[in-house]
Specification:
The protein has 179 residues and is mainly alpha-helical. The protein has 2 domains: 39 residues, no CATH class; 116 residues, Glutathione S-transferase Yfyf (Class Pi), Chain A, domain 2 (Up-down Bundle). Strands 1-2 form a two-stranded antiparallel sheet. Strand 1 and strand 2 form a beta hairpin. The mean pLDDT is 91.
C-alpha cells in the first residue's frame, strides 16, 4: 500500500510506537498504538468497560469473539480472486450465521438490551460495528434468525451519537471487501 508523504514524514518523527497506525494521543501527551489497546483504554476511561471485573472479562470475551469473526471475514482479502465467491458463500451460509447464533445466545442470557451487564459497553459498539461490516459488504448473515441481535443493532443505530456518526459526511468511508 502506498503511504502519503505526510504519513511518511509523521512516521519518520519516531512518534508511532510500531511505525504504524492506529495511533492515539491525548492532550497530556499520553500515546498509545494498537487497536485493541486503544479501544480498551477508551472503554476504561469512558466507563464503557462493565461495572465489575467479571463484566470487564465478559466485554473482553465478546470483543475477542467479534474479532474472531472479523478474522474469518478478512479471508476474502487473502484468498485468490477465483475463490472469493466460494469464501463469500461459506461466510454467508455457515460462518456468519454460526457466530451470530453465539452472540444471540449471549444477548439472551444477559437478559438486558446490552450484551454485557445492564449498561452500554465497548463490546456493544464492537458488535454493532461487526453488523455494519456484514451488512455493508452484503455478506448475508442477516439477523433473520436472531431477533435480539436485530433489536440490539436497531437500538445502537438509534443512539444519538452513533446516529450522528452514521449520518456524518465526515464518516470514514465504508470499507468494501473485494468481490
Amino acid at each position: 500500500m502506498n503511504k502519503t508523504p505526510e504519513f511518511e514524514a509523521f512516521k519518520a518523527t519516531g512518534v508511532l510506537p510500531f511505525g504504524a497506525v492506529p495511533f492515539w494521543e491525548e492532550p497530556d501527551g499520553f500515546r498509545l498504538a494498537q487497536t485493541d489497546a486503544i479501544v480498551r483504554h477508551l472503554a476504561r476511561t469512558h466507563d464503557l468497560y462493565g461495572r465489575s471485573a467479571q463484566e470487564a472479562a465478559r466485554c473482553d470475551m465478546i470483543f475477542a469473539g467479534v474479532d474472531d469473526l472479523r478474522t474469518e471475514i478478512r479471508k476474502i482479502i487473502t484468498v485468490e480472486q477465483a475463490k472469493r465467491a466460494a469464501v463469500r458463500e461459506e461466510l454467508a451460509t455457515r460462518t456468519i450465521p454460526h457466530w451470530l447464533a453465539y452472540f444471540e445466545t449471549l444477548l439472551e442470557a444477559n437478559g438486558t438490551e446490552t450484551i454485557v451487564g445492564s449498561n452500554l459497553s465497548f463490546s456493544d459498539v464492537a458488535l454493532f460495528h461487526l453488523f455494519e461490516m456484514i451488512r455493508d459488504n452484503e455478506l448475508g448473515g442477516t439477523y433473520d434468525k436472531c431477533p435480539r441481535l436485530a433489536g440490539h443493532a436497531a437500538r445502537m443505530a438509534a443512539r444519538p451519537g452513533i446516529a450522528r456518526h452514521i449520518a456524518s459526511p465526515a464518516r470514514f468511508p465504508v470499507q468494501q471487501l473485494p468481490r
